[in-house]
Specification:
This protein is an alpha/beta fold. It folds into two domains: 5-47 and 301-393, Aspartate Aminotransferase, domain 1, CATH 3.90.1150.10; 49-294, Aspartate Aminotransferase, domain 2. It is built from 13 helices and twelve strands. The strands form three sheets. It has a seven-stranded mixed β-sheet with strand order 2-8-7-6-5-3-4, sandwiched between helices. Strands 9-12-11 form a three-stranded antiparallel β-sheet. The radius of gyration is 21 Å and the shape is globular. The protein starts with a helix and ends with a helix. Bound molecules: pyridoxal-5'-phosphate (PLP).
Length: 394
Amino acid sequence: MAIANRIKQNLTGASLIRLVADEGLQMRQQSDKPVWDLSIGNPVYEPPQEFRNAIIDFLRQDSSGYHRYMPNNGHLSARAAVAQQLEKELGWDSISPDCVMMTVGCAGGISLTLKVLLDPGDEVIILSPYFVEYKFYIEGHQGVPVVVPSTPEFQLDIAAIEQALTTQTKAILINTPNNPTGVAYNKESITQLSDLLRAHKDKTGKVVYLLNDSPYYKLMYDESSYVDPLKHYEHTILMTSFSKSLSIPGERIGFVFASPTCEDLESFVPAMAFASRVVGFVNAPALMQHVIPKLVSLPTHVNEYKAKLERLGGALKEAGYEMVWPDGTFYLFPKAPGGDDMAFFHALKEHRVLVVPGSGFGWPGHFRISYCVDDSVIEHAIPAFEAVAKQFLS
Ligand SMILES: Cc1ncc(COP(=O)(O)O)c(C=O)c1O
């Protein structure tokens, strides 16, 4: 089939993640022995009982009309519930539901936001190590990704970001707390970035939007240490979802919230609704929009993930691995012993343990562990990590 060259190139670019998935598939096909798979960020927990109850209650009641098309930004009941929850979280008064757009997961929200903001050739700064899909989203909407490395502590390198800013910069796309590092940006990073973007506007007259891709903000190990960009920079747009916090990534429900102080907010909202139609999402799933108002304030499995981190991260440290300790998420991004993440990946694979080499995130020499797995996977993987560390460190 004559697939577009751009897609062919993207498929080649995504090959490292594919390599891990293919290796896992092959290992499972070739042997009945289990594979200890720490490569995928798929929550191990079932959704909360309240989620099931809300669906069952909804199906039992008269839901006439609810399954039809709706305004593209979503049902008012869902947007109002999200707006109310944001008021509590941010300590803000009267957030209008019009600043909220219900989306097909967080990915759907990122894609729509970029479609709405980018003219061909507009630049979007992303920070390495980055979520693999960013380049594809940006290029897919005719933008140009500009990669800026983070500091060794995985904070923002403000001087490097300053160097990367041009009159073509439309947005900076950050992810806090971060996949793959698990680290959240501290107050210094966020305030300095906000000051830098304001200074850039003063100098060039151009607003740079701060896009916060934040599907893990409910998974902070110390909730109070989350520095919310919305509180620091007026042109911030939050893109998030319930995928990780409620363990429902397959249900594809999330939202975009544009700060009420965002430049051009009046055009942004109808533009998002239009973009949703033309990319073919049309609207977020109706059933999920119905149940979300009952679920927005539910607690997450953050303590359980923290216990998994302490067990696995503790064992890795003891075995000699070096890492920046995560603030949240369910990812850990240690240095690959010996420095070659591909060699490390293959050595670990010999023990039937799968992780993702850091090269896949634009950060070679490290590897990502997803510890959103059953405790038994962690217990089986630890001896393999210990053995491979000995192999590379001795
Ligand atoms: C950083 C980041 N952004 C966005 C997404 C997409 O989230 P969703 O499944 O809600 O679309 C993910 C999923 O793993 C992610 O890690």
